[in-house]
Structure formats: C-alpha cells, structure tokens
UniProtKB/TrEMBL annotation:
Family classification: Belongs to the MIF family.
Provenance organism: Hymenochirus boettgeri (Congo dwarf clawed frog)
An annotated Gene Ontology molecular function: phenylpyruvate tautomerase activity
Keyword Acetylation: yes
Main EC class the enzyme belongs to: lyase
GO biological process, one term: melanin biosynthetic process
Name assigned to this protein: D-dopachrome decarboxylase
Subunit structure: Homotrimer.
Length: 118
C-alpha cells in the first residue's frame, strides 16, 4: 500500500489538473503495486525552499511496504520517478528531491486493524 505525497511551490496553473491520477498510475507501475492500493496527495502553491532557493521545485515522499527498503530498489525507482516528474512538472532534476520511507505492515491501519492482520 504505497503512499505518495508530492509538494511543490509551482502555482496551481502550472501543475497538470490530472497529476494525481497520472502519478498514481506511474507509481503503481514503478513500484509494482496494484493501482487500487496506491494513495497519492498533490499539494501545490506551497512556500518552499530547496537548496537555498525558492525557484520552482518539488519534493516527492514515497512510503511503502517491501519495495523501498534498499539502495538498489530506490536507485531504480528514483530514475523512473525523476523521469515522470521532470516531464509532468517541467522542472530540472536538480530542483526535485525524493525521500523514500520503508513501512512495516503494522504501521498502516485499515478497516479497523493493521495490514499485518489483513
């Protein structure tokens, strides 16, 4: 059950309206998870500074069980997410940061329990 949160200081007019859906689809493919389990939040128009500069930028936070726990996995995911984000947002790679968070099944609640028991 991947969770993706994209924060950007781009004005809402500069962000594709269907970005959340496209990111959901891309994440499912990149992470090898069913699209029905991918959760995406897109926040734009934020006050942000990356590398000391407030020029257009973005940060993507990726949390998931089992697929973001190693450097090798994240190196592969990173390349694909960077390709997606540079195309969709029109930003250069140096203005985008990714953060990966491995999760354990007991850290995600669903249907009145945690994923460990589902």
């Amino acid at each position: 059950m991947p969770f993706l949160e994209l924060d950007t200081n781009l004005h809402p007019d500069q962000v594709p309206q269907d970005l959340a859906g496209k990111l959901c689809s891309a994440a499912a493919s990149i992470l090898g998870k069913p699209q029905e389990r991918v959760n995406v939040t897109v926040r734009n128009g934020l006050s942000m500074v990356v590398g000391g500069s407030s020029t257009p930028c973005a940060q993507l936070f990726v949390s998931s069980i089992g697929v973001v726990g190693t450097a090798e996995q994240n190196k592969e995911h990173s390349a694909k997410f960077f390709q997606f984000l540079t195309q969709q947002l029109g930003l250069k790679q140096e203005r985008i940061l990714l953060r990966f968070y491995p999760l354990e099944p007991w850290q995600i609640g669903k249907n009145g329990t945690v994923m460990t028991f589902l």
